[in-house]
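agent> Task received from the user: take the single chain below, predict its 3D structure, and emit structure tokens. No templates, no multimer pairing.
agent> Plan: (1) validate residues, (2) run structure prediction, (3) serialize to tokens, (4) report one or two observations.
agent> Step 1 OK, no nonstandard residues flagged.
tool_call: predict_structure(input=
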Amino acid sequence: MRRFAWAVLLPLALSACSQQRTADGSLKRRLDWQEALAFVHQDVPLAGNHLVLRSSLGGRFELKFYDRQLVAPLDPQWERVRIVDARVVGKDALVLLRADDAECAPAYRLLQLRDYQVRSWTLVASCNQEGAMAVDEDDGAWRARQPRNRLNAMVWTWRGGELEARLERPASAYDSPRTISRGGGRVARGPRGGRGELPDNERGLPPAE
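)
tool_result: status=success, residues=209
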């Protein structure tokens, strides 16, 4: 009977814990009250465990990676967000989010998780683009593609721990790929000065981290 009780209580106790980064960047383990109080919007498989998108009592969205009990808060301005894709590519867990209430909607956000470090980039083809972003994986590379207009599309590729963006044009007239995961996490977007694109601070989105 005692063994049965431990078998039931131990998983519950572990799931009620979380790890979050403090202001100084260190990890702190704490009791996860939101495990019982938060509203779960999505629960998807990831890394042999599961990933949950939930909102706290205050309404802020956050992700919980159950394979490492890590909680990652999302943009506090987002009120309509969902997980589009979640998978492991090489050493990285990649999560693609879509927010439909951003100023330049729909806004896509790519999160990369390695160990307990989370980085993110904003992926924007153009504002008010109705075409959904398509995601696939081929030969160890993760790709996301979104139409920019009826002729062009933006393509983002994650390969070997780096994110590249390019403008896909007809007749194989491609822009040279631009590596954007170096140098402090530059934002993944189309060519500079493109119409319909706004800086992150003007679209109510946090800068890439």
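agent> Step 4: summary for the user.
The chain has two domains: 1-73, 80-209.
agent> Done.
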